[in-house]
Amino acid sequence: MNASGKVPIHKWTFGLLLLTWFACHSAAQDVNDEFWAEVNGYLRLNEVTRLLLRTSFSADDETRTWQGDFGVHFDFALHPVFRRALSDGEDVFNKRFLSFLAGYRYITSLGSGTPYLEHRWLVEMTSRFPAPGKLVLIDRHRGEIRFISSKGFSTRYRNKLQMERDFRPGGGFRFTPYAYGELYYDTRYDKWNRNRYAMGMRFPARHHFVPELYFLHQNDSESSPQHLNAFGVTFNLYF
Fold it and tell me: Which CATH code is given to the segment(s) 9-22+33-238?
């Protein structure tokens, strides 16, 4: 941190590069490489409620198979009372200290390959806290009810802890680097079987359009292969 109390950008850059190196070298040789693409449409209904429409696709580089994930969600956020907003970005919900989400997702295999079909209902609670150095700490808790074809009913709990910071050099172009870790508890195995680590960056191209790039590494004791690296791109649209 410099004399003005700001965290130099080069320290963030070094940290993100270090996380990338760790993710790439921590996996065993048995690892899948995938590409993930996602489009999120946020339709603001009023000051505290919005509709989220989500479409995502993942591609396995080795098997050349695709999977689609289609969802509809309702998002509700509390007004920040007695405290300043956390962000000046396009997503007004990033300014709120507490938000809730509930929704449904339809997940299916696309094209040839091993068939997969899942109906997933989920609820989320997300808390945001200001941290030193203008950082924001985000703690998300998610519960999922899952109906997977040929595997029956199961539930899953996910806890994601994320750190991010807005940068606006010279008061101009703004971008937001972030890093997070996430843990999964799956009742099919009665244990914490999966963890994810990721780093990425959001950078608004226009007021209602915010693209996002990220790299993710996943370990899962019940998957084959047990390790996965994914490069992803997300397009966030705000209406």
Answer: 2.40.128
